[in-house]
Amino acid sequence: MLTKDQKIRYSRQILSPSIGESGQERLSEVKVLQIGAGGLGSPFAMYLVAAGIKELTIVDNDVVSLSNLQRQVLYSERQVGKPKVDIARDTLLGLNSTVKINAHKEYVDENSIQKYLKDQDFIVDCSDNLNTKFLVNQVSVEHNIKSVIAGIKDFYGQIITVNPKKSACYQCVFSPSTETPNISADPLPVIGVTPGILGTLEALEVIKTALGLPNLENKLLMVNLLDLSFNVVEIEKADDCICS
Ligand SMILES: [Zn+2]
Predict the structure, then answer these.
(1) 31 lies in a domain?
(2) Number of domains in the chain
(3) Which residues have CB less than 5 Å away from ligand 1 (the ion)?
(4) Residue 184 domain boundaries
(5) Is the residue at 58 inside a domain?
(6) CB of 41 within 8 A of CB of 67?
(7) pLDDT in tens, 45-54
(8) d(CA 170, ligand 1 centre) in Å
(9) What is the pLDDT of residue 186?
(10) Is 167 helix (H, G, I), strand (E, B) or coil?
(11) In degrees rounded to 5, what are phi and psi of residue 117?
(12) CA of 123 to the centre of ligand 1 (A)
């Protein structure tokens, strides 16, 4: 049952025939693990927390730098030098104090990610590197937790939702051996709007998947913001993939 405050706070989305009070109740039970709190992670966390999930756990090891502010809209000038997860937690609680926010300053790798997986409904990749995207996909498949993975560069982005056992995974489409690992220290070009849109789409995917609405399972959405094209490519589970 929604409280009186919840009915007011979420009244505009409850009006949606695709959500309603029952959909809002379902959203209020959703737990999400968010990997990365940068350009994708900022709008992702803000829209998801605003929409009223149960719990968001954010893991990120960075501090805010001046060059982040062009796209990482959770942060402001006076927070340069401070840990992102601490600021993200404060800002998100200010937005919606009814959502439980767990914030951990830690580098995400194969070992450290394990302790955050328990009871999660979704793992969402908001990282800036391919190694982490493959790792999120791998733990998603291994632990049968749904995931959303997005990537961006310049004016371009792509996003996929993985429902392990049912749909194709990130590695069905991208191979760790053929993709060039982003180990170079050279930053990629990026216009801030690109992670703004793709991070927002990641929040949309979590919401729609949780509600059983049409989503990006077995589909890769490719976004080109130069010519404003959004192309959905149908994808299939690969027989020799880790998910099969
Ligand atoms: Zn696969």
Answers:
(1) yes
(2) 1
(3) 169, 171-172, 241, 243
(4) 20-234
(5) yes
(6) no
(7) 999 999 999 9
(8) 6
(9) 78
(10) coil
(11) -85, -20
(12) 16
Query: pLDDT grade, residue 3 (50/70/90)?
Result: very high
Q: How far apart are CA 58 and CA 60, in angstroms?
A: 7
- CA dist., res. 22 & res. 227, Å (int): 39
**Ligand 1 center to 243 CA (angstroms):** 4
Question: Which whole number is the average pLDDT over 35-48?
Answer: 98
**Ligand 1 centre from 171 Cα, in Å?**
5
Other residues' Cβ atoms within 10 Å of the Cβ of residue 82: 12
In a domain, 207, yes or no: yes
Neighbours of 98 (CB within 10 A): 14
CA 173 to chain centre: 18
Tokens representing residue 141 in the block: 């498949």
Percent of the chain with pLDDT over 90: 94
Tell me the CA–centroid distance for residue 29 and ligand 1, in Å: 28
pTM over 0.85: yes
The reported pLDDT for the residue numbered 85 is: 98
